[in-house]
Design goal:
The chain has about 160 residues and is mainly alpha-helical. It has nine helices and no strands. It has two domains: about 90 residues, Hypothetical protein, domain 2 (Endonuclease III, domain 1); about 45 residues, no CATH class.
Amino acid sequence: MYQQLSGKAAGTIHARFQALFPAGEPTPERLVKLTDEQLRGVGLSRQKTLYLRDLSQKILDDSLPLDEIESMTDDEVIAHLVQVKGIGRWTAQMFLMFRLGRPDVLPELDLGIQNAVKRAYRMRKRPTPKQVKRIGAKWSPHATVACWYLWRSLDNGDGQLGD
């Protein structure tokens, strides 16, 4: 829900989405029973509605067994999650970092990370994902923590990340 939206807008949509469920707890079983109009009514785009339905269906038909995900390697989790429409490598990496608390994730596709690396390493151009991976290899096994600091380094003091 937070992809390509400001944090405030996404937070509002997420809160409205949660309000569609008893105790604010979405489940695949409950989501598939909601109409597209209900989901669009809380601010979800048609595309994100389709993505949530695909995710829910894959969980329900056991093609995406989430109970095994904690024991998977980072690469296995990414391969597992990108099977879902709307979940790409970046989204899977954010899941690894912020949901599973994995310590060594380097989201090389993240524009914020690319901009922060450019600034920190005084580069003329924003680095490519390949360059970010090469530079970030030194941060292992604590790449996640390095990324937190890199994101914060872009904070202009006004709550907005920028460059």
